[in-house]
Amino acid sequence: MIDVHCHILPALDDGALDLEDSVAMAAQAVEDGIDVVCATPHIRPDHLVRVEELPSRVAALQMELRRRGLDLQISPGAEIAQATAAGLGDTELRRLSLGGGGWVLVEPAPGPLGDDLLALVDGMPARGVHAIIAHPERHAASDLEERLRELTRRGALIQWTADFVARAAAGDLVLQSASAGLVHLLGSDAHSSRAGRPLRLAAGIANLRQVCSPAQVQWIVQDAPRAILDGAESLSPPW
Ligand SMILES: [Fe+2]
Which long-range contacts (CB under 8 A, 24 or more apart) does 63-66 make? Predict the structure, then answer.
């Protein structure tokens, strides 16, 4: 399994507090059956993340995990705030995409998903990238489903938080959205081994099986994240 959203790099944004915390998160991932974690630090004004340092930070963590015998691949990436993404250059946007393959994890602006987000997604193909919309559950509004449909029509994929999916009961927002075909990826969005959401996907995936066919789950869990890291030129849910 591939986790496309995780704040695993140590002492950088509001994620892993230090290297031991990162290693403990990696151990959680391995225990859950995860093979690859995308390191997606916040790129937004309230976190000082130097983009040029990210490759060496990812390499350093990868080396430490190997040294400790943890079989987990760390893939580069970022979680780019909507307003920040709009202002970045095309080359920088691609450099910050998941695995460098052109799929950009976008953190929507606070509040309901707005027209600015649609415009950002609309402009992405001309910039040589595609959008993944992070945690829509934090942006619930009466028009959420229609907004997610619009974003999907424009070529974006929708990533929900695995722990939120794991806790959902029949009829809850995310399971309704999954039935409507609007769950495309799961991410842990884990920030620490010591507090908050765990670095796990399996429980969320198990809950998705309530409403999704095996083929749909296979696409969400395996096919889509693999294609993203492989830099797929186009990718849309086969339903
Ligand atoms: Fe995040």
Answer: 64/19, 64/22, 64/23, 65/23, 65/26
Nearest to 101 by CA among 206, 188, 231: 231
185 C-alpha to center of ligand 1: Å?
A: 14
Q: Is the pTM of this model over 0.85?
A: yes
3-state secondary structure 105-121: EEECCCCCCCHHHHHHH
Cα of 214 vs centre of ligand 1, distance in Å, is: 27
Nearest to 89 by CA among 57, 129, 54, 62: 129
- Which domain does 41 fall in, by range? 2-229
Tally the domains of the chain.
1
State in Å: Cα 128 to ligand 1 middle.
23
User: Which CATH number do you get for residue 7?
Assistant: 3.20.20.140
Question: 213 CA to middle of ligand 1, Å?
Answer: 28
Angle at alpha carbon of residue 237, lines to 168 and 107, rounded to 5°: 60
Residue 236 lies inside a defined structural domain of this protein: no
Per-residue pLDDT of the chain (239 residues; tens, 9 = 90+): 999 999 999 999 999 999 999 999 999 999 999 999 999 999 999 999 999 999 999 999 999 999 999 999 999 999 999 999 999 999 999 999 999 999 999 999 999 999 999 999 999 999 999 999 999 999 989 999 999 999 999 999 999 999 999 999 999 999 999 999 999 999 999 999 999 999 999 999 999 999 999 999 999 999 999 999 999 998 999 99
